[in-house]
Amino acid sequence: MENIYSEEDLITKLKENRPLRIKLGADPTAPDIHLGHTVVLNKLRQFQQFGHEVYFLIGDFTGMVGDPSGKKLYPSAT
């Protein structure tokens, strides 16, 4: 993460009347999307409608090689 702003910092930035830059990154680790994805995508669209810059990044390399942290996507059923 480059920057995480507090609510007070966000209010100050909005008062400057300059567009915010909002970035969202996703790794394509599953072959489909579900209804839960639409929540954040709709929120990004709202930011665009208010004149902010939105960047949606897709991690194609991590999608090809998998999660480099070694974490499993789903816990083992025991």
TrEMBL record:
One of its GO terms (biological process) is tRNA aminoacylation for protein translation. This is Tyrosine--tRNA ligase. GO terms for cellular component: cytosol. The lineage of its organism: Bacteria, Pseudomonadati, Pseudomonadota, Gammaproteobacteria, Pasteurellales. One of its GO terms (molecular function) is tyrosine-tRNA ligase activity. InterPro entries: aa-tRNA-synth_I_CS, aa-tRNA-synth_Ic, Rossmann-like_a/b/a_fold, Tyr-tRNA-ligase_bac-type. Its EC number is 6.1.1.1. It is an enzyme of class 6 (ligase). The gene is tyrS_2. Keywords: Aminoacyl-tRNA synthetase, ATP-binding, Ligase, Nucleotide-binding, Protein biosynthesis. It catalyses: tRNA(Tyr) + L-tyrosine + ATP = L-tyrosyl-tRNA(Tyr) + AMP + diphosphate + H(+). It holds the Pfam family tRNA-synt_1b. It comes from the Bacteria. PROSITE patterns: AA_TRNA_LIGASE_I.
